């Protein structure tokens, strides 16, 4: 077993640590802290204050600790988050940041390529789809932008992006009007 595999396995021994360490899941911090408190209580009752704490309380502390630990092992076994998953997530986040950087530089083609790669990996990535619609609009590819916005609106997580989608639709209509006016001016001159 490699070092990563061993470290991954060891993190399962402390309830909450695996998800806290690899996924940054803040709710797992509570699980890890509660386990630490139970462990401290059991150790304190058994070794520091063994003369003042009744045997029933000491047994209760160790049984509670064991039950909590078994629950934590079960939860860690159910957990699908692995270091590779986190690396994949970081890779996707890096990809989005690179696409956003290209967008801000005005490099529409590079941004489009990165965003399409990101969407192939995660078709439900609303942020990437919304940025791709904006890239299409900025590149004056109005029909593609409109189609992309339609896909964004159909995504399950699009509700929280309603305001941004609305702003993009307004910007798209403005770009359509500008394109129509430019085409009309070209026709009048020709």
Question: Which short descriptors sum up this protein?
Answer:
single chain, 190 residues, mainly alpha, Serine Threonine Protein Phosphatase 5, Tetratricopeptide repeat, 2 domains, 9 helices, 0% strand, rod-shaped, disordered N terminus
Structural features, described:
With 190 residues, the chain is an all-alpha fold. It has two domains: 3-78, no CATH class; 83-189, Tetratricopeptide repeat domain (Serine Threonine Protein Phosphatase 5, Tetratricopeptide repeat), CATH 1.25.40.10. The chain contains nine helices and no strands. It has helices at 3-10, 17-23, 27-48, 55-78, 83-105, 108-121, 126-138, 142-154, 162-189. It is rod-shaped and about 100 Å long.
Number of domains: 2
| Percentage of residues in DSSP E strands | under 5%
Overall pLDDT metric? 83
User: Can you tell me the CATH superfamily of the largest domain?
Assistant: Tetratricopeptide repeat domain
Rounded to the nearest angstrom, the radius of gyration is 27 Å
Principal-axis shape: rod-shaped
End-to-end separation in angstroms reads: 74 Å
- Level-2 CATH architecture of the largest domain: Alpha Horseshoe
Uncertain runs: 1-5
Given helix and strand content, the structural type is mainly alpha
């Amino acid at each position: 077993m490699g070092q990563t595999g061993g470290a991954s396995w060891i993190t399962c021994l402390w309830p909450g640590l695996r998800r806290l360490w690899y996924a940054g899941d803040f709710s797992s911090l509570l699980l890890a802290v509660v386990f630490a408190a139970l462990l401290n209580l059991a150790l304190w009752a058994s070794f520091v204050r063994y003369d003042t704490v009744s045997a029933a309380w000491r047994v209760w502390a160790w049984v509670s600790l064991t039950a909590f630990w078994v629950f934590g092992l079960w939860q860690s076994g159910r957990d699908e988050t692995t270091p590779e998953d986190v690396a994949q997530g970081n890779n996707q986040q890096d990809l989005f940041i690179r696409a956003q950087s290209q967008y801000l530089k005005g490099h529409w083609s590079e941004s489009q390529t990165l965003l399409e790669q990101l969407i192939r990996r995660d078709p439900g990535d609303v942020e990437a789809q919304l940025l791709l619609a904006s890239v299409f609009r900025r590149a004056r590819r109005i029909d593609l932008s409109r189609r992309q916005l339609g896909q964004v609106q159909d995504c399950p997580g699009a509700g929280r992006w309603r305001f941004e989608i609305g702003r993009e639709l307004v910007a798209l209509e403005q770009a359509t009007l500008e394109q129509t006016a430019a085409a009309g001016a070209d026709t009048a001159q020709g």
